[in-house]
């Protein structure tokens, strides 16, 4: 495998970090702010991440959630590409069953043309929303249909990305543009390169599939911590070397929040847990102010949920977060840590990444 291809997946470790560090952005909208505010924070954060040596910056697809403004990853990534120069940008991820594979091939082929050699295509099979919204997205009442067909959808998407449907295939004369076919068209000078595909998951399904296909794997530790080690073990056990990777490469998404004051980190985490509680009970809203969470009267069952949820957030001072991330790396053996910092205000999110970067001595230019 050419070294430049390997480098698209394998990041570089900077400072004293145990592995490459990256950023996951849900473009969270806090109460009292707007989606415009959240997107401006994303631009500032992507530029900061690039300057400080974070390897990649991914945007997640979610729908019908007032506090999450990342329903259109490709649109956001195009915006971020215009404001950055080097950092890898990608989807963490596109929920493939919500879309026609050809559309995704076209969107990410366009992104690749905008930011050559910097685009990742992370794919998931969950809807990224509730069942009714998934039905509206997929124009189907059979919600499991898309997830069950995920391997076939992935194969179709890969064919469009590589422009290599076999002779006689119904889609053999269809080409995703921009794409490799432009390099073989008379007079064409288009690069045949296309974004590397990652599989995302929160259980064993995508872990096994990624292993069998020899693809890089991203696990959602930030909301499925109990499944992290089993899924990573399964990925490594089933991994087969491929043209993409000669050995497994797995990153994990980690909820991490560093603040100047440990008490503020706890306040923000309880607000995040309240947000998740509302989401899990069918009442999604804007990211609540910590003062609202402090006033909320939690039932014993709700308090149990809050305690359980916050236990999986690496939070506190910069030193506490660094220690927590180091311990998590030792326990999981992850090849990369992708950090998602949730806070009510954009400046707190930015400050969290700054503190973490400083704690690990990441580059300052």
pLDDT < 50 stretches = 1-5
Report the radius of gyration as a whole number of Å.
20 Å
Structural class: alpha/beta
What proportion of the residues is helical, as a percent range?
Answer: 40-55%
Mean pLDDT: 91
Annotation, overall tally of beta strands: 9
State the distance separating the first and last CA atoms: 31 Å
Strand order of the largest sheet: 1-2-3-4-5-6-7-9
Number of helices: 15
- Estimated share of beta-strand residues: 5-15%
Backbone shape: globular
The topology string of helices and strands comes to: HEHEHEHEHHHHEHEHEHHHEHEH
Question: Mind describing the biggest β-sheet?
Answer: 8 strands, parallel, barrel
Description:
With 365 residues, this protein is of the alpha/beta class. Helix content is 45%, strand content 13%. An 8-stranded parallel barrel has the order 1-2-3-4-5-6-7-9, surrounded by 8 helices. Strand 1 (21-25), helix 2 (35-51) and strand 2 (56-59) form a beta-alpha-beta unit. The chain is globular.
Please outline what is shown here.
This protein has helices spanning 3-9, 35-51, 73-81, 101-114, 131-138, 144-148, 150-162, 181-184, 204-213, 228-238, 262-280, 290-295, 300-311, 318-332, 346-359; strands at 21-25, 56-59, 88-95, 119-124, 197-201, 217-219, 250-258, 314-316, 336-340. It is an alpha/beta fold.
Q: What descriptors fit this protein?
A:
8-stranded parallel barrel; 9 strands; 45% helix; 365 residues; alpha/beta; 15 helices
């Amino acid at each position: 495998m050419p070294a430049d291809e390997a480098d698209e997946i394998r990041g570089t470790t900077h400072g004293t970090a145990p592995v490459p560090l990256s950023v996951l952005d849900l473009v969270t909208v806090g109460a009292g702010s707007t989606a415009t505010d959240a997107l401006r924070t994303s631009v500032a954060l992507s530029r900061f991440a690039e300057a400080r040596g974070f390897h990649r910056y991914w945007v997640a697809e979610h729908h019908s959630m007032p506090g999450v403004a990342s329903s259109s990853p490709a649109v956001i990534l195009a915006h971020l590409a215009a404001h950055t120069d080097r950092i890898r940008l990608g989807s963490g991820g596109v929920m493939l069953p919500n879309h026609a594979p050809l559309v995704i091939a076209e969107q990410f082929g366009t992104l690749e043309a905008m930011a050559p050699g910097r685009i990742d295509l992370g794919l998931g099979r969950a809807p990224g929303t509730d069942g009714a919204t998934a039905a509206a997205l997929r124009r189907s009442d059979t919600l499991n249909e898309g997830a069950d067909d995920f391997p076939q959808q992935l194969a179709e998407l890969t064919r469009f990305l590589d422009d290599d449907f076999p002779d006689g295939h119904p889609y053999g004369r269809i080409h995703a543009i921009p794409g490799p076919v432009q390099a073989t068209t008379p007079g064409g000078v288009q690069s045949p390169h296309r974004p590397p595909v990652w599989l995302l998951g929160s259980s064993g399904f995508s872990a096994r599939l990624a292993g069998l296909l020899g693809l890089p794997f991203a696990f959602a530790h930030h909301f499925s911590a109990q499944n992290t080690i089993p899924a990573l073990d399964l990925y490594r056990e089933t991994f087969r070397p491929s043209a993409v990777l000669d050995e497994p490469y797995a990153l994990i998404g980690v909820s991490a929040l560093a603040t100047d004051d440990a008490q503020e980190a706890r306040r923000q985490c309880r607000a995040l847990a309240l947000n998740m509680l509302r989401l899990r009970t069918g009442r999604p809203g804007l990211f609540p102010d910590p003062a609202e969470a402090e006033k909320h009267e939690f039932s014993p069952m709700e308090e149990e949920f809050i305690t359980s949820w916050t236990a999986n957030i690496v939070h506190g001072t910069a030193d506490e977060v660094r220690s927590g991330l180091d311990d998590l790396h030792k326990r999981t053996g992850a090849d990369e840590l992708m950090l998602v910092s949730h806070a009510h205000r954009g400046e707190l999110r930015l400050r969290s990444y700054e503190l973490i970067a400083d704690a690990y001595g990441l580059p300052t230019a």
